[in-house]
Amino acid sequence: MTKLTGLVEQREPLTFRFEDDGLVPNHPRWPMLVYPGAVTLPDDVDPASVFEDLFSTNGWGDGWRNGIYDYVHYHSRIHEVLGIARGTAEVRFGGDKGKVLNVKAGDVAILPAGTGHQRLSSSSDLLVVGAYPPFGTYDLCTRAEQHAEALRTIPKVGRPEKDPVYGSEGPLLSAWQDG
Predict the structure, then answer these.
(1) pTM confidence score
(2) Is 106 exposed, middle or buried (0-12, 13-18, 19+ CB in 10 A)?
(3) 107: which of 81, 83, 103, 128 fits an S-S bond (Cβ 3.0–4.6 Å)?
């Protein structure tokens, strides 16, 4: 396990709310959170393992290493965290009417269920680590026919007990309130 102490920087999250655009429902109550530069990635460690250890320490698992799909998609039955382990990417969040953000190594994005995401471009060395809270079911939604069902399932996905980066004291817990 990587020594995480000293690698996590306390960051105020950037918050983004997106409207339903007819294809991508986004989340009706909870914002997407981005922690720019939240994780320091030393040269002498595998950057992906830092994110894997951090997320699993905070109860987010089923991790993967890859990139971000180059087509618009969302997950209607589970939340997702994306840690940028290497490289840079231009990603549109929230669907076609959403917001394009440039993410880089050390950044973390936390997507509540329903949040659209699509890689528009990236450096050739892009490596992303993803993970999910301990409940929910992974699904991949890309089609208009999935929209009506997604509107029913997204609000039923509960709030995680821990922020994937900052644990039980993380900003996610106050940003994602019921009501």
Answers:
(1) 0.96
(2) buried
(3) 103
